[in-house]
Amino acid sequence: MYAVLLSAGLVFIAELGDKSQLMSMTFATRYRTRTVIIGAGLGCALTTFVSAFVGNTIGDNLPQHAVRVAAGVLFLIFAALTLRNVPSDDAPPVERKRGGAAVLVVAVAFILAELGDKTMLATMTLSTQYHWVLIWIGSLIGELTAIVLAVFAGRALLQILPIRTVHIVSAALFAAVGVWMLIG
Q: Any idea which UniProt keywords this protein has (predicted)?
Protein backbone atom coordinates (compact mmCIF):
# COMPACT_ATOMS: atom_id res chain seq x y z
CA MET A 1 0.00 0.00 0.00
CA TYR A 2 2.92 2.32 0.76
CA ALA A 3 4.17 2.03 -2.84
CA VAL A 4 0.75 2.95 -4.23
CA LEU A 5 0.44 5.98 -1.96
CA LEU A 6 4.03 7.09 -2.59
CA SER A 7 3.73 6.92 -6.37
CA ALA A 8 0.24 8.47 -6.35
CA GLY A 9 1.43 11.36 -4.20
CA LEU A 10 4.62 12.02 -6.13
CA VAL A 11 2.95 11.83 -9.53
CA PHE A 12 0.05 14.00 -8.36
CA ILE A 13 2.42 16.68 -7.08
CA ALA A 14 4.53 16.43 -10.23
CA GLU A 15 1.47 16.87 -12.42
CA LEU A 16 0.29 20.04 -10.65
CA GLY A 17 0.91 22.78 -13.17
CA ASP A 18 2.53 20.33 -15.60
CA LYS A 19 1.70 20.20 -19.30
CA SER A 20 -0.67 17.26 -18.76
CA GLN A 21 -2.77 19.26 -16.36
CA LEU A 22 -2.64 22.32 -18.57
CA MET A 23 -3.65 20.16 -21.55
CA SER A 24 -6.57 18.86 -19.50
CA MET A 25 -7.71 22.39 -18.81
CA THR A 26 -7.40 23.26 -22.49
CA PHE A 27 -9.17 20.12 -23.72
CA ALA A 28 -11.95 20.75 -21.18
CA THR A 29 -12.69 24.02 -22.93
CA ARG A 30 -12.98 22.19 -26.28
CA TYR A 31 -14.57 18.84 -25.38
CA ARG A 32 -17.01 17.45 -22.83
CA THR A 33 -15.61 16.63 -19.39
CA ARG A 34 -16.27 12.91 -19.81
CA THR A 35 -14.44 12.88 -23.16
CA VAL A 36 -11.34 14.52 -21.68
CA ILE A 37 -11.24 12.22 -18.64
CA ILE A 38 -11.69 9.04 -20.71
CA GLY A 39 -9.14 10.07 -23.34
CA ALA A 40 -6.61 11.23 -20.78
CA GLY A 41 -7.22 8.11 -18.71
CA LEU A 42 -6.49 5.83 -21.65
CA GLY A 43 -3.33 7.73 -22.55
CA CYS A 44 -2.13 7.83 -18.95
CA ALA A 45 -2.91 4.14 -18.36
CA LEU A 46 -0.74 3.16 -21.31
CA THR A 47 2.21 5.43 -20.50
CA THR A 48 2.27 4.59 -16.79
CA PHE A 49 1.99 0.85 -17.57
CA VAL A 50 4.97 0.98 -19.94
CA SER A 51 6.95 3.13 -17.49
CA ALA A 52 6.33 0.83 -14.54
CA PHE A 53 7.09 -2.32 -16.51
CA VAL A 54 10.33 -0.94 -17.98
CA GLY A 55 11.40 0.35 -14.56
CA ASN A 56 10.80 -3.07 -13.06
CA THR A 57 12.89 -4.73 -15.76
CA ILE A 58 15.73 -2.29 -15.16
CA GLY A 59 15.48 -2.79 -11.40
CA ASP A 60 15.63 -6.57 -11.71
CA ASN A 61 18.78 -6.47 -13.83
CA LEU A 62 20.90 -3.81 -12.10
CA PRO A 63 22.50 -3.70 -8.63
CA GLN A 64 20.12 -2.18 -6.08
CA HIS A 65 22.63 0.40 -4.79
CA ALA A 66 23.35 1.70 -8.30
CA VAL A 67 19.63 1.96 -9.04
CA ARG A 68 19.03 3.87 -5.79
CA VAL A 69 21.82 6.37 -6.52
CA ALA A 70 20.62 6.83 -10.11
CA ALA A 71 17.06 7.32 -8.86
CA GLY A 72 18.18 9.96 -6.36
CA VAL A 73 20.11 11.81 -9.05
CA LEU A 74 17.10 11.61 -11.41
CA PHE A 75 14.81 13.15 -8.81
CA LEU A 76 17.30 15.98 -8.27
CA ILE A 77 17.35 16.50 -12.05
CA PHE A 78 13.52 16.56 -12.05
CA ALA A 79 13.67 19.28 -9.39
CA ALA A 80 16.10 21.34 -11.46
CA LEU A 81 14.06 20.89 -14.65
CA THR A 82 10.88 21.85 -12.84
CA LEU A 83 12.49 25.06 -11.59
CA ARG A 84 13.95 25.76 -15.03
CA ASN A 85 10.58 25.44 -16.74
CA VAL A 86 8.48 27.60 -14.43
CA PRO A 87 5.85 29.14 -16.74
CA SER A 88 4.24 32.54 -16.58
CA ASP A 89 0.92 32.89 -14.81
CA ASP A 90 -1.18 33.77 -17.88
CA ALA A 91 -2.87 31.36 -20.30
CA PRO A 92 -5.17 32.35 -23.18
CA PRO A 93 -8.70 30.84 -23.28
CA VAL A 94 -9.66 28.48 -26.10
CA GLU A 95 -13.13 28.30 -27.63
CA ARG A 96 -15.26 25.18 -26.97
CA LYS A 97 -15.69 22.62 -29.79
CA ARG A 98 -16.99 19.04 -30.19
CA GLY A 99 -15.61 16.17 -32.22
CA GLY A 100 -16.46 12.55 -32.95
CA ALA A 101 -12.91 11.24 -32.42
CA ALA A 102 -12.24 13.48 -29.42
CA VAL A 103 -11.37 10.62 -27.04
CA LEU A 104 -8.72 9.38 -29.46
CA VAL A 105 -7.35 12.89 -29.98
CA VAL A 106 -7.05 13.43 -26.23
CA ALA A 107 -5.52 9.97 -25.64
CA VAL A 108 -2.89 10.39 -28.36
CA ALA A 109 -2.07 13.91 -27.15
CA PHE A 110 -1.51 12.60 -23.62
CA ILE A 111 0.65 9.71 -24.79
CA LEU A 112 2.85 12.04 -26.83
CA ALA A 113 3.02 14.64 -24.05
CA GLU A 114 4.04 12.06 -21.44
CA LEU A 115 6.81 10.40 -23.46
CA GLY A 116 10.02 11.18 -21.61
CA ASP A 117 8.15 13.39 -19.13
CA LYS A 118 9.27 13.57 -15.51
CA THR A 119 6.22 11.60 -14.33
CA MET A 120 7.05 8.78 -16.74
CA LEU A 121 10.64 8.76 -15.53
CA ALA A 122 9.52 8.98 -11.89
CA THR A 123 7.24 5.97 -12.43
CA MET A 124 10.12 4.04 -13.99
CA THR A 125 12.40 5.01 -11.12
CA LEU A 126 9.93 4.01 -8.41
CA SER A 127 9.34 0.68 -10.19
CA THR A 128 12.97 -0.20 -9.64
CA GLN A 129 12.37 0.01 -5.87
CA TYR A 130 8.82 -1.36 -5.48
CA HIS A 131 6.55 -3.85 -7.24
CA TRP A 132 5.79 -2.42 -10.68
CA VAL A 133 2.05 -3.16 -10.56
CA LEU A 134 1.67 -1.15 -7.36
CA ILE A 135 3.65 1.74 -8.87
CA TRP A 136 1.55 1.57 -12.04
CA ILE A 137 -1.67 1.73 -10.01
CA GLY A 138 -0.38 4.56 -7.82
CA SER A 139 1.02 6.56 -10.71
CA LEU A 140 -2.22 6.19 -12.64
CA ILE A 141 -4.24 7.29 -9.60
CA GLY A 142 -1.98 10.31 -9.09
CA GLU A 143 -2.06 11.34 -12.72
CA LEU A 144 -5.82 10.87 -13.13
CA THR A 145 -6.46 12.77 -9.91
CA ALA A 146 -4.42 15.68 -11.23
CA ILE A 147 -6.25 15.54 -14.56
CA VAL A 148 -9.70 15.44 -12.97
CA LEU A 149 -8.67 18.32 -10.72
CA ALA A 150 -7.61 20.27 -13.79
CA VAL A 151 -10.82 19.55 -15.62
CA PHE A 152 -13.15 20.42 -12.72
CA ALA A 153 -11.27 22.96 -10.65
CA GLY A 154 -8.06 23.86 -12.45
CA ARG A 155 -8.98 27.40 -13.28
CA ALA A 156 -10.12 28.10 -9.75
CA LEU A 157 -6.90 26.64 -8.32
CA LEU A 158 -4.74 28.72 -10.62
CA GLN A 159 -6.68 31.84 -9.64
CA ILE A 160 -5.96 31.16 -5.97
CA LEU A 161 -2.42 29.78 -6.26
CA PRO A 162 -0.08 31.03 -8.98
CA ILE A 163 1.29 28.33 -11.29
CA ARG A 164 4.76 29.59 -10.47
CA THR A 165 4.24 28.63 -6.81
CA VAL A 166 2.94 25.19 -7.81
CA HIS A 167 6.11 24.56 -9.82
CA ILE A 168 8.38 25.72 -7.00
CA VAL A 169 6.65 23.43 -4.47
CA SER A 170 6.84 20.54 -6.95
CA ALA A 171 10.57 21.14 -7.46
CA ALA A 172 11.17 21.20 -3.70
CA LEU A 173 9.36 17.88 -3.26
CA PHE A 174 11.36 16.27 -6.08
CA ALA A 175 14.58 17.52 -4.50
CA ALA A 176 13.55 16.15 -1.10
CA VAL A 177 12.82 12.70 -2.56
CA GLY A 178 16.13 12.79 -4.47
CA VAL A 179 18.11 13.58 -1.34
CA TRP A 180 16.19 10.93 0.61
CA MET A 181 17.04 8.29 -2.03
CA LEU A 182 20.72 9.28 -2.09
CA ILE A 183 21.03 9.21 1.69
CA GLY A 184 19.12 5.92 1.89
A: Membrane, Transmembrane, Transmembrane helix
